[in-house]
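User: Predict the structure for this protein chain, please.
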Amino acid sequence: MASSRVTALEPAAVALFLAGVFGALGALGDWRAELGRFQLLVAVAFAGYALALARRAQWRSLPSAGVFVVVVAFALRAAVLPVTPTLSDDIHRYLWEGRVVAAGENPYRQAPDDPALASLRDADVHPRINHPELRAIYPPLAELGFALVAKLGGTVWVLKLWVLLHDLALCALLAWWCRQRGGSAWDAAVYAWNPLVITEYAGSAHHDPTGILWLVLALALAERVPLRSAFAACAAALVKLVALVALPFLWRVWSVRARLVAVGTLAVTMAIYAGMALGENSGLTAFALHWRHNDAGFGLLSAWAGDTNARGFVALLLAGLTVAALRARATPTDGARLLLRAGLLLGPVVHPWYLGWVIALEPLRPSPAWLLLSATVCLGYGTFAAPAEGGAYHPDAWTRAIEYGLPALLAAILFAVRRRGGRPGVRTIAGGGPA
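Assistant: Here is the predicted structure, written as structure tokens:
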């Protein structure tokens, strides 16, 4: 009985430790101005997170795992919810474009600095919009979400709650999916308690969970309920285009009816979106052809072939990986994971919050190297002090060598251990090995 009580206290103790660290993060104030302290506290949070992942196999017999994981996930997010986002200014773009749509205007046609929108400007949101000369980049469903936020008050708080609700729903969905696959709801903590996920979404209010939720739902329902999976996949792609990488793998397991729904929905909506979003002063075009930040493999390609050619090579490499994975009959989840990971490692832009799309699939088969990258990617904001360049900061080669090199080294060590017949201390579920 005593041993059982001690075991039951373990996850509670780890959760309280994490809550204390995130409470300190929430009290820190301006994360950009206090970048060194922010990164130190995040590193401490990752230490507690690593302990939770290492011990979760021993917690399997404890009751109400899913409820506990989600409740703790909520508490950790609530601790940083009051923070005003300063590491990124994306939230001001979200709030502005929601205001434009709610007013009956079109952010795909009119950039924030368009004189026709002068009546919507204020002293708080409009002056902080990044690239005010560029029109909207986000797909239509994301813009409708921003508009709903505007209708509900259009404040930072409302936007944060919008993201939080989706993120918590995603945590609950992952707990359910892990159990359905023969694992444990404790595995959902791989995403739900990840410090990067919490700081980027509850803290900085990046809206990615409003798309990740739909992608995970599409993958979870792909074979059981293909029609609902198709609707969910369309919703994910209409929030963020990155979700499109899962479609070739979902297509193979969908019914004919689900395929028709996906093709019909996306053909119409994407054609309308492209027609409005492309052209002069297009944010979408600027992102695809010119933007670059914190890249890994793309830097090597660019140094060899030039920026423009490197972007073409990346597109060809991702297309080739898709074909190879389809020929190898990869499952929708494995195919999506492969393409999301490859897109990050080869792409010209790697913001820390992009990792959330990969981390959301890690509960199914955790990769120590990718979880380590979710910690080191925080160097993309600077190294222990706010960079003088502000939002124009781009990590130098040495910083990126540490950021990506440490996870690569860990991956190489684990690969060598497996080749020699050893078994690194990573628990997996549903028969999968560490990726």
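The CA atoms of residues 163 and 207 lie 6 Å apart.
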